[in-house]
Amino acid sequence: MSADHREQQPNPQGSRIDPHVGRYARRAQGMVASEVRALFAVASRPEVVSLAGGMPNVAALPLDQIGELVKDVVSEEGAAALQYGSAQGDPVLREQICDYMTLEGITASPDDVIVTVGSQQALDLITRVFVDPDDIVLCEAPTYVTAINTFAAFQADIQHVGMDERGVIPEELERSLTEAARAGRTVKFFYTIPNFQNPAGITMSAERRARVMEICERHDVLVVEDNPYGLLRYEGDPEPTLFSQGSGNVIYLGSLSKTLSPGLRIGWALAPAAVRAKLVLAAESAMLSHSTFNQLVVRRYLNTFPWQEQIKVFNTMYSERRDAMLTALTAMMPDGCTWTRPEGGFFVWATLPEGIDAKAMLPRAVAERVAYVPGTGFYADERGRANMRLSFCYPTPEQIREGVRRLVGAIEGEVDL
Ligand code: PMP
After folding, report:
1. Domain Aminotransferase class I/classII large: where (predicted)?
2. Residue 257 Cα: closest atom of ligand 1
3. 134: exposed, middle or buried (C-beta count within 10 Å: 0-12, 13-18, 19+)?
4. For residue 280, how far is its CA from the centre of ligand 1 (angstroms)?
Protein backbone atom coordinates (compact mmCIF):
# COMPACT_ATOMS: atom_id res chain seq x y z
CA MET A 1 0.00 0.00 0.00
CA SER A 2 1.40 3.43 -0.88
CA ALA A 3 2.13 6.01 1.81
CA ASP A 4 -0.42 8.29 0.12
CA HIS A 5 -3.11 5.71 0.52
CA ARG A 6 -2.23 5.13 4.17
CA GLU A 7 -2.41 8.82 4.97
CA GLN A 8 -5.90 9.04 3.58
CA GLN A 9 -7.26 6.68 6.23
CA PRO A 10 -8.98 8.89 8.84
CA ASN A 11 -7.90 8.09 12.41
CA PRO A 12 -10.41 7.76 15.26
CA GLN A 13 -9.95 11.42 16.20
CA GLY A 14 -11.07 12.40 12.71
CA SER A 15 -7.74 13.76 11.46
CA ARG A 16 -6.74 12.60 7.97
CA ILE A 17 -3.19 11.86 9.10
CA ASP A 18 -2.67 8.87 11.32
CA PRO A 19 0.21 9.68 13.71
CA HIS A 20 0.69 5.95 14.42
CA VAL A 21 1.18 4.96 10.83
CA GLY A 22 4.84 4.01 11.30
CA ARG A 23 4.10 1.81 14.29
CA TYR A 24 1.72 -0.76 12.92
CA ALA A 25 2.85 -4.33 12.42
CA ARG A 26 3.29 -5.27 8.78
CA ARG A 27 0.20 -7.48 8.93
CA ALA A 28 -1.92 -4.51 10.08
CA GLN A 29 -0.88 -2.31 7.19
CA GLY A 30 -3.16 -4.18 4.80
CA MET A 31 -6.18 -3.85 7.10
CA VAL A 32 -8.60 -1.44 5.50
CA ALA A 33 -12.36 -1.18 5.87
CA SER A 34 -14.17 -3.50 3.46
CA GLU A 35 -16.37 -2.07 0.76
CA VAL A 36 -19.32 -3.77 2.42
CA ARG A 37 -18.69 -1.94 5.69
CA ALA A 38 -18.35 1.43 3.99
CA LEU A 39 -21.63 0.74 2.24
CA PHE A 40 -23.65 0.12 5.36
CA ALA A 41 -23.83 3.84 6.17
CA VAL A 42 -25.39 4.62 2.80
CA ALA A 43 -27.54 1.52 2.61
CA SER A 44 -29.14 2.11 6.00
CA ARG A 45 -30.67 5.44 4.93
CA PRO A 46 -34.45 4.85 4.99
CA GLU A 47 -35.05 5.93 1.40
CA VAL A 48 -32.52 3.42 0.06
CA VAL A 49 -33.58 -0.15 -0.74
CA SER A 50 -30.59 -2.13 0.41
CA LEU A 51 -29.81 -5.24 -1.60
CA ALA A 52 -26.34 -4.93 -0.08
CA GLY A 53 -26.06 -6.31 3.46
CA GLY A 54 -26.42 -9.96 4.42
CA MET A 55 -28.35 -9.27 7.63
CA PRO A 56 -30.72 -12.03 8.72
CA ASN A 57 -34.27 -10.88 9.39
CA VAL A 58 -34.35 -11.27 13.16
CA ALA A 59 -37.74 -9.50 13.32
CA ALA A 60 -39.15 -12.95 12.45
CA LEU A 61 -38.04 -14.22 15.88
CA PRO A 62 -40.54 -14.39 18.79
CA LEU A 63 -38.82 -11.63 20.77
CA ASP A 64 -41.14 -11.83 23.80
CA GLN A 65 -40.41 -15.52 24.27
CA ILE A 66 -36.70 -14.95 23.87
CA GLY A 67 -36.95 -12.18 26.48
CA GLU A 68 -38.58 -14.66 28.90
CA LEU A 69 -35.87 -17.17 28.20
CA VAL A 70 -33.13 -14.62 28.92
CA LYS A 71 -34.84 -13.72 32.20
CA ASP A 72 -34.96 -17.40 33.18
CA VAL A 73 -31.23 -17.76 32.47
CA VAL A 74 -30.50 -14.90 34.87
CA SER A 75 -32.88 -16.02 37.60
CA GLU A 76 -32.20 -19.76 37.41
CA GLU A 77 -28.57 -19.99 36.27
CA GLY A 78 -27.28 -16.48 36.86
CA ALA A 79 -24.24 -17.45 38.90
CA ALA A 80 -22.95 -19.72 36.11
CA ALA A 81 -24.07 -17.43 33.29
CA LEU A 82 -22.19 -14.46 34.73
CA GLN A 83 -19.00 -16.42 35.40
CA TYR A 84 -15.99 -17.25 33.18
CA GLY A 85 -16.31 -20.40 31.11
CA SER A 86 -13.94 -22.52 29.06
CA ALA A 87 -12.35 -21.52 25.77
CA GLN A 88 -13.69 -24.67 24.15
CA GLY A 89 -17.25 -23.72 25.02
CA ASP A 90 -20.04 -25.01 27.23
CA PRO A 91 -20.14 -28.85 27.15
CA VAL A 92 -23.95 -29.08 27.00
CA LEU A 93 -24.08 -26.57 24.14
CA ARG A 94 -21.43 -28.61 22.30
CA GLU A 95 -23.69 -31.67 22.61
CA GLN A 96 -26.61 -29.66 21.25
CA ILE A 97 -24.42 -28.46 18.38
CA CYS A 98 -23.72 -32.11 17.55
CA ASP A 99 -27.50 -32.76 17.46
CA TYR A 100 -27.92 -29.73 15.21
CA MET A 101 -25.22 -31.04 12.87
CA THR A 102 -27.06 -34.36 12.46
CA LEU A 103 -29.56 -32.34 10.38
CA GLU A 104 -26.64 -31.78 7.99
CA GLY A 105 -25.79 -35.49 8.02
CA ILE A 106 -22.79 -35.10 10.34
CA THR A 107 -22.07 -37.46 13.22
CA ALA A 108 -19.65 -35.85 15.66
CA SER A 109 -18.45 -35.99 19.23
CA PRO A 110 -18.83 -32.86 21.45
CA ASP A 111 -15.11 -33.25 22.29
CA ASP A 112 -14.25 -32.33 18.69
CA VAL A 113 -16.32 -29.13 18.72
CA ILE A 114 -15.09 -25.71 19.75
CA VAL A 115 -17.67 -22.95 20.21
CA THR A 116 -16.53 -19.71 18.60
CA VAL A 117 -17.67 -16.09 18.42
CA GLY A 118 -19.59 -16.70 15.20
CA SER A 119 -17.94 -18.78 12.52
CA GLN A 120 -15.93 -15.64 11.80
CA GLN A 121 -13.80 -16.28 14.87
CA ALA A 122 -13.29 -19.86 13.74
CA LEU A 123 -11.88 -18.51 10.46
CA ASP A 124 -9.57 -16.23 12.40
CA LEU A 125 -8.36 -19.00 14.73
CA ILE A 126 -7.78 -21.43 11.87
CA THR A 127 -5.76 -18.86 9.94
CA ARG A 128 -3.83 -17.91 13.09
CA VAL A 129 -2.96 -21.55 13.73
CA PHE A 130 -2.05 -22.56 10.16
CA VAL A 131 -0.93 -19.62 8.07
CA ASP A 132 2.53 -18.06 7.93
CA PRO A 133 3.16 -15.05 5.69
CA ASP A 134 3.12 -16.03 1.98
CA ASP A 135 1.53 -19.43 2.56
CA ILE A 136 -1.07 -20.10 -0.08
CA VAL A 137 -4.74 -20.20 0.89
CA LEU A 138 -7.00 -21.40 -1.92
CA CYS A 139 -10.55 -20.15 -2.09
CA GLU A 140 -13.38 -19.98 -4.57
CA ALA A 141 -13.69 -17.16 -7.10
CA PRO A 142 -15.49 -15.15 -5.79
CA THR A 143 -15.56 -15.77 -2.03
CA TYR A 144 -16.78 -14.35 1.29
CA VAL A 145 -15.30 -10.89 1.76
CA THR A 146 -14.46 -11.17 5.45
CA ALA A 147 -12.70 -14.48 4.91
CA ILE A 148 -10.49 -12.68 2.39
CA ASN A 149 -9.83 -9.97 4.98
CA THR A 150 -8.91 -12.56 7.61
CA PHE A 151 -6.54 -14.44 5.31
CA ALA A 152 -5.01 -11.12 4.22
CA ALA A 153 -4.55 -10.06 7.85
CA PHE A 154 -2.27 -13.07 8.30
CA GLN A 155 -0.44 -12.19 5.06
CA ALA A 156 -1.61 -15.27 3.17
CA ASP A 157 -1.11 -15.49 -0.57
CA ILE A 158 -4.80 -15.78 -1.48
CA GLN A 159 -5.37 -17.65 -4.74
CA HIS A 160 -8.78 -18.12 -6.30
CA VAL A 161 -10.14 -21.26 -7.94
CA GLY A 162 -12.83 -20.75 -10.57
CA MET A 163 -16.46 -21.82 -10.16
CA ASP A 164 -19.28 -22.56 -12.53
CA GLU A 165 -22.96 -23.23 -11.76
CA ARG A 166 -22.04 -26.56 -10.11
CA GLY A 167 -19.45 -25.07 -7.78
CA VAL A 168 -15.67 -25.09 -7.80
CA ILE A 169 -14.13 -26.45 -11.01
CA PRO A 170 -12.09 -29.57 -10.11
CA GLU A 171 -9.59 -29.15 -12.96
CA GLU A 172 -8.76 -25.64 -11.71
CA LEU A 173 -8.32 -26.88 -8.16
CA GLU A 174 -6.04 -29.63 -9.40
CA ARG A 175 -4.03 -27.15 -11.49
CA SER A 176 -3.57 -24.73 -8.57
CA LEU A 177 -2.38 -27.52 -6.28
CA THR A 178 -0.04 -28.97 -8.89
CA GLU A 179 1.47 -25.58 -9.72
CA ALA A 180 2.00 -24.80 -6.04
CA ALA A 181 3.72 -28.18 -5.50
CA ARG A 182 5.91 -27.65 -8.57
CA ALA A 183 6.95 -24.24 -7.25
CA GLY A 184 7.73 -25.73 -3.83
CA ARG A 185 4.99 -23.61 -2.24
CA THR A 186 2.81 -24.62 0.70
CA VAL A 187 -0.96 -24.64 0.33
CA LYS A 188 -2.28 -24.45 3.86
CA PHE A 189 -5.93 -25.09 3.08
CA PHE A 190 -8.73 -24.83 0.58
CA TYR A 191 -11.56 -22.65 1.90
CA THR A 192 -14.99 -23.41 0.46
CA ILE A 193 -18.63 -22.48 1.09
CA PRO A 194 -20.39 -25.41 -0.61
CA ASN A 195 -24.00 -24.38 0.09
CA PHE A 196 -25.62 -21.23 -1.36
CA GLN A 197 -22.23 -19.64 -1.54
CA ASN A 198 -21.60 -16.10 -0.33
CA PRO A 199 -21.57 -14.17 -2.66
CA ALA A 200 -22.34 -16.37 -5.69
CA GLY A 201 -25.44 -18.22 -4.40
CA ILE A 202 -24.06 -21.41 -5.98
CA THR A 203 -24.30 -24.88 -4.42
CA MET A 204 -21.59 -27.44 -5.13
CA SER A 205 -23.05 -30.57 -6.76
CA ALA A 206 -22.62 -34.01 -5.15
CA GLU A 207 -20.34 -35.12 -7.97
CA ARG A 208 -18.13 -32.05 -7.54
CA ARG A 209 -17.96 -32.57 -3.79
CA ALA A 210 -16.66 -36.10 -4.30
CA ARG A 211 -14.06 -34.88 -6.81
CA VAL A 212 -12.95 -31.98 -4.60
CA MET A 213 -12.42 -34.38 -1.72
CA GLU A 214 -10.54 -36.86 -3.90
CA ILE A 215 -8.21 -34.09 -5.17
CA CYS A 216 -7.59 -32.56 -1.75
CA GLU A 217 -6.88 -35.94 -0.19
CA ARG A 218 -4.49 -36.88 -3.00
CA HIS A 219 -2.62 -33.58 -2.54
CA ASP A 220 -2.84 -33.92 1.24
CA VAL A 221 -4.53 -30.54 1.59
CA LEU A 222 -6.76 -29.48 4.45
CA VAL A 223 -10.30 -28.35 3.55
CA VAL A 224 -12.13 -25.64 5.51
CA GLU A 225 -15.85 -26.15 4.88
CA ASP A 226 -17.85 -23.05 5.87
CA ASN A 227 -21.54 -23.84 6.08
CA PRO A 228 -23.57 -21.11 7.78
CA TYR A 229 -26.48 -21.32 5.31
CA GLY A 230 -26.88 -25.10 4.92
CA LEU A 231 -30.29 -25.39 6.63
CA LEU A 232 -31.71 -22.41 4.71
CA ARG A 233 -32.70 -24.48 1.67
CA TYR A 234 -35.79 -23.43 -0.29
CA GLU A 235 -35.82 -26.15 -2.93
CA GLY A 236 -34.05 -29.37 -3.89
CA ASP A 237 -32.38 -31.96 -1.67
CA PRO A 238 -29.37 -31.32 0.57
CA GLU A 239 -25.99 -32.44 -0.75
CA PRO A 240 -23.64 -34.40 1.53
CA THR A 241 -21.18 -32.30 3.50
CA LEU A 242 -17.49 -32.47 2.61
CA PHE A 243 -16.83 -33.29 6.26
CA SER A 244 -18.85 -36.50 6.04
CA GLN A 245 -16.78 -37.58 3.02
CA GLY A 246 -13.40 -36.68 4.48
CA SER A 247 -10.92 -38.77 6.42
CA GLY A 248 -9.71 -36.26 8.97
CA ASN A 249 -8.72 -33.53 6.50
CA VAL A 250 -11.80 -31.31 6.85
CA ILE A 251 -12.49 -28.57 9.39
CA TYR A 252 -16.22 -27.89 9.36
CA LEU A 253 -17.62 -24.51 10.40
CA GLY A 254 -21.18 -23.92 11.51
CA SER A 255 -23.10 -20.97 12.90
CA LEU A 256 -26.42 -20.03 14.46
CA SER A 257 -26.18 -16.52 13.01
CA LYS A 258 -28.55 -17.24 10.14
CA THR A 259 -30.82 -19.83 11.76
CA LEU A 260 -31.23 -18.02 15.10
CA SER A 261 -29.46 -14.68 15.55
CA PRO A 262 -26.11 -13.13 14.64
CA GLY A 263 -26.25 -10.94 17.76
CA LEU A 264 -25.66 -13.95 20.01
CA ARG A 265 -22.39 -14.70 18.14
CA ILE A 266 -22.54 -18.47 18.40
CA GLY A 267 -20.60 -20.41 15.81
CA TRP A 268 -18.35 -23.43 15.97
CA ALA A 269 -15.61 -25.44 14.38
CA LEU A 270 -15.60 -29.23 14.20
CA ALA A 271 -12.02 -30.34 13.79
CA PRO A 272 -9.75 -33.38 14.16
CA ALA A 273 -8.68 -33.69 17.83
CA ALA A 274 -5.13 -32.31 17.46
CA VAL A 275 -6.33 -29.31 15.44
CA ARG A 276 -9.17 -28.70 17.85
CA ALA A 277 -6.67 -28.59 20.74
CA LYS A 278 -4.61 -25.93 18.91
CA LEU A 279 -7.74 -23.92 18.15
CA VAL A 280 -8.72 -23.97 21.84
CA LEU A 281 -5.26 -22.67 22.82
CA ALA A 282 -5.53 -19.93 20.21
CA ALA A 283 -9.02 -19.05 21.47
CA GLU A 284 -7.71 -18.82 25.02
CA SER A 285 -5.19 -16.18 24.06
CA ALA A 286 -7.73 -14.37 21.88
CA MET A 287 -10.55 -14.11 24.45
CA LEU A 288 -9.87 -16.26 27.53
CA SER A 289 -13.35 -17.72 27.46
CA HIS A 290 -16.47 -17.41 25.40
CA SER A 291 -19.48 -15.43 26.67
CA THR A 292 -21.00 -17.90 29.14
CA PHE A 293 -24.14 -15.81 29.23
CA ASN A 294 -24.79 -16.05 25.48
CA GLN A 295 -24.05 -19.76 25.50
CA LEU A 296 -26.54 -20.42 28.29
CA VAL A 297 -29.20 -18.38 26.49
CA VAL A 298 -28.65 -20.44 23.35
CA ARG A 299 -28.51 -23.67 25.35
CA ARG A 300 -31.92 -22.88 26.82
CA TYR A 301 -33.29 -21.82 23.43
CA LEU A 302 -32.22 -25.10 21.82
CA ASN A 303 -33.55 -27.04 24.79
CA THR A 304 -36.94 -25.40 25.25
CA PHE A 305 -37.88 -23.82 21.94
CA PRO A 306 -39.17 -25.51 18.76
CA TRP A 307 -36.14 -24.19 16.90
CA GLN A 308 -36.57 -26.43 13.86
CA GLU A 309 -40.01 -24.84 13.39
CA GLN A 310 -38.36 -21.42 13.64
CA ILE A 311 -35.97 -22.40 10.83
CA LYS A 312 -39.04 -23.31 8.74
CA VAL A 313 -40.48 -19.83 9.47
CA PHE A 314 -37.23 -18.27 8.24
CA ASN A 315 -37.19 -20.51 5.17
CA THR A 316 -40.75 -19.61 4.19
CA MET A 317 -39.94 -15.91 4.48
CA TYR A 318 -36.60 -16.08 2.66
CA SER A 319 -37.90 -18.28 -0.12
CA GLU A 320 -40.67 -15.74 -0.87
CA ARG A 321 -38.02 -13.05 -1.02
CA ARG A 322 -35.77 -15.10 -3.24
CA ASP A 323 -38.70 -15.75 -5.60
CA ALA A 324 -39.55 -12.02 -5.61
CA MET A 325 -35.99 -11.18 -6.59
CA LEU A 326 -35.66 -13.84 -9.29
CA THR A 327 -39.05 -12.94 -10.78
CA ALA A 328 -38.22 -9.22 -10.77
CA LEU A 329 -34.80 -9.82 -12.34
CA THR A 330 -36.34 -11.99 -15.07
CA ALA A 331 -39.05 -9.41 -15.77
CA MET A 332 -36.91 -6.29 -15.70
CA MET A 333 -33.16 -6.81 -16.22
CA PRO A 334 -31.85 -5.52 -19.55
CA ASP A 335 -30.42 -7.83 -22.21
CA GLY A 336 -26.89 -8.98 -21.54
CA CYS A 337 -27.32 -9.30 -17.75
CA THR A 338 -27.12 -12.74 -16.18
CA TRP A 339 -27.57 -13.95 -12.61
CA THR A 340 -27.43 -17.10 -10.50
CA ARG A 341 -30.48 -18.95 -9.18
CA PRO A 342 -29.77 -19.90 -5.56
CA GLU A 343 -31.58 -22.88 -4.03
CA GLY A 344 -31.19 -21.32 -0.59
CA GLY A 345 -29.21 -18.80 1.44
CA PHE A 346 -29.30 -15.05 0.96
CA PHE A 347 -27.54 -14.10 -2.28
CA VAL A 348 -27.86 -13.72 -6.03
CA TRP A 349 -24.74 -12.93 -8.05
CA ALA A 350 -25.40 -10.80 -11.11
CA THR A 351 -23.17 -10.13 -14.09
CA LEU A 352 -23.63 -6.91 -16.05
CA PRO A 353 -23.26 -6.48 -19.80
CA GLU A 354 -19.80 -5.97 -21.25
CA GLY A 355 -18.36 -2.55 -20.46
CA ILE A 356 -20.43 -1.73 -17.34
CA ASP A 357 -18.44 -1.47 -14.13
CA ALA A 358 -20.58 -2.28 -11.07
CA LYS A 359 -18.29 -0.37 -8.72
CA ALA A 360 -18.27 2.76 -10.87
CA MET A 361 -22.05 2.48 -11.21
CA LEU A 362 -22.70 2.45 -7.46
CA PRO A 363 -23.05 6.26 -7.01
CA ARG A 364 -25.66 6.27 -9.78
CA ALA A 365 -27.48 3.37 -8.09
CA VAL A 366 -27.44 5.16 -4.73
CA ALA A 367 -28.84 8.26 -6.47
CA GLU A 368 -31.60 5.92 -7.72
CA ARG A 369 -31.99 4.84 -4.04
CA VAL A 370 -30.78 1.26 -4.29
CA ALA A 371 -27.59 -0.32 -2.93
CA TYR A 372 -25.72 -3.53 -3.72
CA VAL A 373 -22.21 -4.80 -3.12
CA PRO A 374 -19.88 -4.47 -6.12
CA GLY A 375 -18.23 -7.75 -7.08
CA THR A 376 -14.64 -6.55 -6.63
CA GLY A 377 -14.83 -6.94 -2.83
CA PHE A 378 -15.16 -10.69 -3.20
CA TYR A 379 -11.83 -11.20 -4.92
CA ALA A 380 -8.32 -10.78 -3.59
CA ASP A 381 -7.27 -9.70 -7.09
CA GLU A 382 -8.71 -7.27 -9.61
CA ARG A 383 -11.66 -9.37 -10.77
CA GLY A 384 -15.37 -8.78 -10.23
CA ARG A 385 -15.86 -5.43 -11.95
CA ALA A 386 -18.82 -6.67 -13.99
CA ASN A 387 -20.44 -8.30 -10.95
CA MET A 388 -22.64 -7.39 -8.03
CA ARG A 389 -24.01 -9.27 -5.05
CA LEU A 390 -27.74 -8.81 -4.50
CA SER A 391 -29.15 -9.95 -1.13
CA PHE A 392 -32.79 -10.79 -0.70
CA CYS A 393 -32.76 -11.60 3.04
CA TYR A 394 -33.67 -8.27 4.58
CA PRO A 395 -36.02 -6.22 2.34
CA THR A 396 -39.66 -7.26 1.90
CA PRO A 397 -40.77 -8.73 -1.46
CA GLU A 398 -42.31 -5.35 -2.34
CA GLN A 399 -39.05 -3.53 -1.53
CA ILE A 400 -37.10 -6.11 -3.53
CA ARG A 401 -39.26 -5.47 -6.62
CA GLU A 402 -38.81 -1.72 -6.19
CA GLY A 403 -35.07 -2.19 -5.58
CA VAL A 404 -34.66 -4.18 -8.79
CA ARG A 405 -36.67 -1.55 -10.70
CA ARG A 406 -34.28 1.15 -9.43
CA LEU A 407 -31.27 -1.00 -10.19
CA VAL A 408 -32.44 -1.45 -13.76
CA GLY A 409 -32.78 2.36 -13.97
CA ALA A 410 -29.13 2.69 -12.93
CA ILE A 411 -27.95 0.05 -15.43
CA GLU A 412 -29.93 1.66 -18.25
CA GLY A 413 -28.40 5.02 -17.27
CA GLU A 414 -24.93 3.53 -17.75
CA VAL A 415 -25.86 2.02 -21.11
CA ASP A 416 -27.21 5.39 -22.33
CA LEU A 417 -23.93 7.19 -21.60
N1 PMP B 1 -18.98 -17.40 6.54
C2 PMP B 1 -19.83 -16.94 5.62
C3 PMP B 1 -19.83 -17.55 4.26
C4 PMP B 1 -20.70 -15.89 5.92
O5 PMP B 1 -21.54 -15.44 4.97
C6 PMP B 1 -20.68 -15.32 7.21
C7 PMP B 1 -21.58 -14.17 7.61
N8 PMP B 1 -21.96 -13.32 6.66
C9 PMP B 1 -19.77 -15.85 8.14
C10 PMP B 1 -18.95 -16.89 7.77
C11 PMP B 1 -19.65 -15.32 9.54
O12 PMP B 1 -20.81 -15.49 10.24
P13 PMP B 1 -20.88 -15.50 11.81
O14 PMP B 1 -19.55 -15.08 12.33
O15 PMP B 1 -21.96 -14.56 12.15
O16 PMP B 1 -21.19 -16.92 12.17
Report:
1. 62-407
2. 15
3. exposed
4. 20
Instruction: State the distance from the centre of ligand 1 to the C-alpha of 120, rounded, in angstroms.
Output: 6
At residue 26, does pLDDT exceed 80? yes
Choose among 292, 256, 230, 227: nearest CA to 97: 256
Phi, psi of 33 (to 5 degrees): -60, 140
Least confident range of 29-43, 146-160, 224-238, 248-262? 29-43
Q: What is the CA radius of gyration of the chain?
A: 22
- Please give the sequence-ordered ranges of beta strands (E in DSSP) within 56-186, or none if there are none: 113-117, 136-141, 157-164, 167-168
In tens, the pLDDT along 323-372 reads 999 999 999 999 999 999 999 999 999 999 989 999 999 989 999 999 99
Tally Cβ neighbours within 10 Å of residue 388: 31
Taking the C-alpha atoms of residue 336 and residue 186, their distance in angstroms, rounded to an integer, is 40
Q: Considering only 72-76, 127-131, 216-220, 354-358, which range has the smallest mean pLDDT? A: 354-358
Q: Choose one of 148, 149, 251, 257 to mutate for the ligand 1 pocket test, by most ligand atoms within 8 angstroms of C-beta.
A: 257
Q: Are strands 49-50 and 370-371 parallel, antiparallel or unpaired?
A: parallel
267 lines ligand 1 (CB under 6 A): yes
pTM equals 0.94
What separation in Å is there between the alpha carbon of 119 and the centre of ligand 1? Answer: 6
DSSP run (H or E) holding 283: helix 273-287
Check pocket membership of 227 for ligand 1, CB cut-off 6 A. no
E-strand ranges in 156-274 read 157-164, 167-168, 187-192, 222-226, 250-255, 266-270
Predicted confidence at residue 415, as pLDDT, reads: 80
Name the residue at shortest CA distance from atom 11 of ligand 1. Answer: 120
Q: Is the reported ipTM for this assembly greater than 0.90?
A: yes
For ligand 1, say whether the CB of 198 is within 6 Å of any of its atoms. yes
CA of 107 to the centre of ligand 1 (A): 22
pLDDT tens-digit profile of 256-296? 999 999 999 999 999 999 999 999 999 999 999 999 999 99
Residue minimizing CA distance to atom 5 of ligand 1: 198
Nearest C-alpha neighbor of 224 from the set 144, 104, 115:
144
